[in-house]
Amino acid sequence: MSSIRISARPARQRGQSLPLGLAAMMFTAILTLALFNTGQVTSEKMRLTNTADAAVYSGLVWQARGLNFQAYMNRAMVANQVSIAQVVSLVSWSRYLRTAARNLNYVLGWIPPVRPFTQAFYNASIELNELVRQVAEVAVNVLDGLLDVLRFAQQSVHVATGASTQEIVRKVVERNDARYRLTYLGAGFLAKNTADWYRFTKNYDDDDGLVRKADVITRSRDRFTRDRGWSERMLDVGIIKVELVKAGETRLMRKAKSNDADDDDWYGNRRQRSGSNLDWQWKGKDTLSVHLRWKCIRRWRLTTCREELPVGWGAALVSTTGQDIESCNEDDEDGGFWFFRSGCPPWSRNARAERLAEMEKDILDANYDGVRSYRDIADAGVQDPRLPLVVEVRVDHRAVRTSTKVKGIGSPAKAGESRNGMGTGMFRVADDFAESKVGDGGAQLAAIAKGEVFFRRPVKRVPGRWGATDSQDEFGSLYNPYWDVHLLPADRERIAAWATRGVADFVGLAGELSGGRI
Q1: β-strand 301-319 against 362-363: which pairing, if any?
Q2: What is the distance between the alpha carbons of residues 495 and 490, in angstroms, rounded to a whole number?
Q3: How far apart, in whole angstroms, are the C-alpha atoms of residue 374 and residue 202?
Q4: Does residue 316 contact residue 88 with C-beta atoms inside 8 Å?
Q5: Best label site of 263, 338, 395, 408, fewest CB within 10 Å?
Q6: Residue among 86, 82, 67 nearest 479 (CA)
Q7: For 125-148, b where at least 16 C-beta lie within 10 A, e where not — what string?
Q8: Which run of H or E residues covers position 106?
Q9: pLDDT tens profile 18-47
Q10: Around Cβ 398, how many Cβ atoms within 10 Å?
């Protein structure tokens, strides 16, 4: 029986992979468009964030420079005051030299070989004192006038900085991209920063504020102005000691303005004073005395007797009143003759020489208006004052180039509307943006940034100690230009922005419902 072989060959099938290929191509195209949209939105978000950061940083840098400029003006005003003190010190010292030369000529001038030298020295001291006095009066007028210029510059920069910060922030946003704008909330943040700027510092023109500045000026004096004295032991034999003492100092003094008849008008009515109620003056004294101490018997007791012999003295001052305002009285019980009694509290051990200096003091004929008003932190007790700035930048969704903006691919046409054999909306991939019903309105992309101006004292190295630094802290003020800027996380502000838009959307939706439009 023969075997029968049956072979079955499958029939050829064609076109079955085409639907799968088309589906894969459509999926790939949609995925590509989705990735393209995601990349475009992410890139736009990064540029928007960088713009917001740049706007915040630029606005804060401008304000930090304004604070540093005001600090430089305060330092310049302090330096000018110290310069006036130096001028007064030179006049006082030249006056002291003149008196010492005169006394030397009186004591040694009777010796014929010595008299020409002592007389020449005395004449030279007179010329020197007159020259220094004339130069000093001009210098005080110039330095005092510069104080008004510095104060005006400080006030002008304060006003200009606050007024121009908003414009700087807006210009930075527009220059980064012409499509970008501040949101309404961002404009509100910017307006708050402007208000905070004008509250951050204040103009101190009251007595307490000026006294605080006077303390800074006093502590800023140079060594010659602060203490130009010395002492030398000339004899010490046990029962008797002789010491030569040179004393010299220039002080900034103040006194409450008097309420005497000069303050009344023609009809006897009391005038109302405005601003500070203080008079000011720089006063310098230079003295040289010989101090004697020896053992003596007083009231049947062995004690130490003291005596001061003035050798040279001089004093000079410039004041807001044109007169000496130092508070003096005649109740001092200093020993000696009546004209040696000091009418003012002595500045040094040379009390008698100081009294003589008071009797022959030079009062400079110059315009001096005292310690001027200045700007400083409004709350001087705050150790770490800071000035924040928040900016929110947006871009309209229509300006973001996603696939929906490409004609023929992502157009909003319906799939049933055919063109060139293909529905123009078939490959539309939605790129929904957050949309607000009120406020900025419309779908948009937004970014928020935050920063602050703060006071940071530079780290100072300790000389002679490798790697060592000082650990001193310094309160924020407008006496040192150490104001800097940094960016901060804006988490709370971002939550506030979301909450604001949520409330706005709810209000807008409620308005639509109440109007019967939906």
Answers
A1: parallel
A2: 9
A3: 8
A4: yes
A5: 338
A6: 67
A7: beebbeebbeebbebbbebbeebe
A8: helix 17-108
A9: 777 777 777 777 677 667 677 767 778 888
A10: 13
- CA dist 297 and 302 (Å) reads 4
First to last CA, the chain: 88
Least confident of 237-241, 442-446, 479-483, 514-518: 514-518
The count of other CB atoms within 10 Å of the CB of residue 335 is 12
Location of structure tokens 């930075």? 172
Between 238 and 269, whose confidence is greater? 238
Burial (CB count within 10 angstroms: exposed 0-12, middle 13-18, buried 19+), residue 437: middle
Alpha-carbon distance of 298 to 296, in angstroms, equals 7
Q: pLDDT digit string (tens) for 489-516?
A: 988 888 888 877 665 554 444 444 455 4
Helical spans, DSSP H, in 378-422: none
Distance CA 244, CA 308 (A): 10
Take residue 268 and report the two structure tokens written for it. Answer: 């006897």
Can you tell me whether residue 454 is helix, strand or coil?
A: strand
d(CA 142, CA 28): 81
What's phi and psi for 105, nearest 5 deg? -70, -35
**Per-residue 3-state assignment (H helix, E strand, C coil) for 197-238:** HHHHEEEECCHHHHHHHHHHHHHCCCHHHHCCCEEEEEEECC
Residues 6+ apart with CB under 8 A from 500: 185, 439
HEC string of 136-154? Answer: HHHHHHHHHHHHHHHHHHH
Q: Residue 302 is inside which H or E element, if any?
A: strand 301-319
